[in-house]
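Morning F.,

Quick status update on the modeling queue. The single chain you submitted on Monday has been processed. Sequence for confirmation:
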Amino acid sequence: MLKLTNNDIVLTYKDYLLNEKHYSENTLTAYINDIQTLVDFLTNEDLGDLHYLTSRIAKFYVASLHGRFSPKSIRRKISSVRSLYDYLISEDVIEDNPFEGVALPKVKKDLPKFIYEDEMNRFLNNIDEKSVLGKRNKVIFELLYGAGLRVSELTEIRITDIDFINAQILIHGKGSKDRLVPIHDFALAEVKSYLNEARLELALKQKEHHDALFLNYRGTPLTPRGVRKILNQELEKQASAMKISPHSFRHSFATHLLNRGVDLRIVQELLGHVSLSTTQIYTKISREKLQGEYLKAHPRAFKKGKEDESENV
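Structure tokens below.
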């Protein structure tokens, strides 16, 4: 079998993820960072290299991650290196996956954070659109919520991806899976206004032409990190107590549609989920919302048992 150094393996696998799997830059970076954690462990513990890693060392490695990383991060890191070894098997570099069957920590499944409809409307309506950046920010959050986008999908939108006639946007999702999502008239009007006014002004700050829909204050394409920073600044500006991330707008999109009776499979298509089970987590949020509204509204829900005891005859 071919002997590869750690560096050879990492570079070869990186090339595979980029050119064969067509992973995004963020996903690619996450995979390589996870693999580098294993390489650093092997180097520091003087346990050899990736090529000759055994199942015993694999278990030792998993144990070393406890206390340093959360259960969720540990599972992700092991998933990354397990995928690496599956790739090496497919290339006839090794015969067995040392991480096959290793025990992983259980992860408590927290329900996604979402924003109630009145809170969402208040947040969106309070964005100051007087400035160029304010106009841009309004469109950012209108689309995150209006189309249920991941923040990486939002920043990858190109102007040519927007179909103004059919009111649709071509979204470049995970794993190079494209999908068309509808956009409502109000959000579409906001996009048109942004393109004709704010984006044009931002684009003039750079000599080089960029076709990204969203530009930062320097006129270069906006990044996911930039969106998170913009959200934090907007929350602070509005003196809002909400503890949310850009992904909360996607969660809210799904939850609000389900609360209003939209079929689960339609929501699945809109979100770009491969598996229906991924979308089903939102049904629990909807059920809890339903129960909460029921308990607040039903007349008998307010009846106190103690009041009846005094009327016993």
